[in-house]
Amino acid sequence: MEVINTSGRRKTSVARIYLTPGQGNITINGKDIKQYFPNEVLQTIVNQPFQTLDSIGKYDVKANLKGGGVSGQAEALRLAISKALVVENAETKSALRKEGFITRDPRMVERKKFGKRKARRSFQFSKR
């Protein structure tokens, strides 16, 4: 197996990854996953595709993350890893789809409208 290159997106985050066989090292923007995501919940989100397929420690991931916040970046990385695992072995697609890791989450922030405080929130109404 050679290097598999895929990308994943979530909100405004974009993850580009390179998946190779290895010892399970995950490097994000030149840092280790424990440095980049100190929160264990986010580390768990990133490792969910490997846990589903019982392949923890079999692949090395080198990722470039850009845009958005930490949770969006973690979920974009999860999508990219899932897509790379499907490219590597097509039989894993049903297991990953069952967990919901293959589908891109389309929810985005709604834009602010003119005459409003936020997207839907109006200014406080004063009767007198």
UniProtKB/TrEMBL annotation:
GO terms (molecular function) for this protein are:
RNA binding; structural constituent of ribosome
What domain of life? Answer: Bacteria
Can you supply a Gene Ontology BP term from the record? translation
Task: Please give an example of a GO cellular component term from this record.
Answer: cytosolic small ribosomal subunit
* Name recorded for this polypeptide: Small ribosomal subunit protein uS9
Q: Does the keyword section mention DNA-binding?
A: no
Gene name, per UniProt, is rpsI
Q: Which UniProt keywords apply?
A: Ribonucleoprotein, Ribosomal protein
Protein family per UniProt: Belongs to the universal ribosomal protein uS9 family.
Residues passing through the membrane, by range: none
Q: Which InterPro entries match?
A: Ribosomal_Su5_D2-typ_SF, Ribosomal_uS9, Ribosomal_uS9_bac/plastid, Ribosomal_uS9_CS, Ribsml_uS5_D2-typ_fold_subgr
This protein's record includes keyword S-adenosyl-L-methionine: no
